Amino acid sequence: MSNRDTAATLEYHETTKHSERSVRASRHFLDFENQPLAFKIYRDLKAIPLPQSFPGDDLPALEAISPPVAAAAANGDDERTPDLATLSRILYLSAGITKRKRYPGGEILFRAYPNTGALHHIDLYLVTGELPGLSAGVYHFDPRDFALRRLREGDYRAVLVEASGRSPDLARAPLIIASASTYWRNAWKYEARAYRHCFWDGGTLHANLLAVAGSEQLEPRLVIGFADRAVEQLLGLDPEREGAIALVPLGRSRRATPPAPPLPELRLAIEPISRSEVDYPAIRAQHAASSLKDGAEAASWRAPTLAREEPAPTDSFYPLRPMAELDLPRDSLDAVIRRRGSTRAFDRTRSLSLEEFSAVLDCATCAVLGDFLDPPGASLLDLYLIVHAVEGLAPGAYYYRRLERSLELLREGNFRKEAGRLGLSQELPADAAVNVYSMVTLPALLGRFGNRGYRAAQLEGGVMGGRMYLGAYAQRFGATGLTFFDDEVTEFFSPHARGKSVMFLVALGHPDRTALGGGS
Ligand SMILES: Cc1cc2nc3c(=O)[nH]c(=O)nc-3n(C[C@H](O)[C@H](O)[C@H](O)COP(=O)(O)O)c2cc1C
């Protein structure tokens, strides 16, 4: 199986689409007796508690989410090594438990990042040299007891540097955070579509991680070009059930990464996550089809990004409107992440101002720095919107012209009913003030990046979606990710969007505080 055999992705994407028919024909039901644990629990490893109190940061959330590229870029030769308190802040605000809610069947532990079905299938791992307060090793982060567990002792960063074909970002980092999904924890509900969710949920998690680590001047980057087997082996993942998502280098060191110690196979006992597991071969097949075999393949995969052509514009343009300096919300990133929670009902009677909405779009579209987005500021995705209630914009369908920072009106009209339908006939997208769809032309993407381009586009969609959440909560309104009828979205925005596929959907608006459970 080769990354270049892109028929695999087209088939995976096609067979995991939602449609009226697929939803109707599905016999899938949720077996609550067999619901997987939302945590990976190592049986025999000692917990290394992380400091529960760590210095916050006063940087306003909107600034932290969208730093100018120059500010986020290299700090020259400055050395920068995170200490344990900084690391605790990063882990907590990326993937920590921020809320607990009791319900008749038990308790849900909500996390810092939004994720499909609150199933929390993503784990974080650290691969580090010596840090102040933490010895070199490979660690797993467990949000349950806010502790690390050491999987390997010694400095193994060189394994990741080699796996990435000597990525200069990984080579300069004293610490690398790796993420991985245990598929069954999400596939229990979403079946084979869970592989998309690895990158959706990984994306929202990384939106937080990039913002928090960026606020610590640690130059975080998304590195997704790596030899999968080598990374999975280092982290002790079960390649049949788990897949690595991304590597994020943090900090800067002038010292060369030392050669790694020997790498025995990890055989660590892990608590079963449910009574039994259902295998979805399509997940494993898509992971294998988009895997890179060694560092050399990773090095050649990492190259200038996809060149895209903007379609010719019409004359109905609405430029984004920046908020007056004095009106910019000053709430810190920490406060915003702690209070975030997906909106469960929107208030149809309240609109967003164009300034508020512009601030969210600016957050979403500021540079995502990563090895598939060179030069900095590039993007794989096009944004399409259904506006219901944004002051200064006629209700209708829009395309976001990124270079001009303008919204182009494609079709005027009240499309609340249609938006509800496109979002799997839910009320949230019908009641929201606006829905934002990230889309990509798959054949062009796969032509450039092979099957792994699919991971990249889904992940970028997740990061942009996560940033929209943060941009909304920074301004005290709400957001929720949503799923969708794939082909109907394309059809709705056609002919403009003909041939494009949806990677992510976010609805934005003011929460309905009178609705049951609403108003997060
Ligand atoms: C990609 C994505 C898709 C989602 N899809 C839906 C959806 O279709 N319907 C819905 O009610 N909530 C949806 N959600 C919201 C999740 O259910 C919510 O994030 C999860 O329950 C965790 O809650 P929290 O975001 O408040 O922490 C989605 C979230 C994400 C990130």
The coarse silhouette is: globular
Distance between the termini: 45 Å
Summarize the biggest pleated sheet: 7 strands, antiparallel
Question: Please, what is the average pLDDT?
Answer: 94
Radius of gyration (Å): 22 Å
**Number of helical segments?**
19
Strand runs, count = 15
Helix share, percent:
25-40%
Can you list the ligands bound to this structure? flavin mononucleotide
| Unreliable parts | none
Cross-sheet strand order for the largest sheet: 9-12-11-10-13-15-14
Beta-strand share of residues: 15-25%
Tell me the structural class. Answer: alpha+beta
Can you walk me through this structure?
The chain is α+β, with helices and mostly antiparallel strands. It is built from 19 helices and 15 strands. Strands 9-12-11-10-13-15-14 form a seven-stranded antiparallel sheet, with helices on both faces. Strands 1-6-5-4-7-8 form a six-stranded antiparallel sheet, with helices on both faces. A hairpin with an 8-residue loop joins strand 10 (382-387) and strand 11. Helix 17 (442-449) crosses helix 18. The chain is globular. The N and C termini lie far apart (45 Å). The mean pLDDT is 94. The site of flavin mononucleotide has 18 residues, from helix 9 and strand 14.
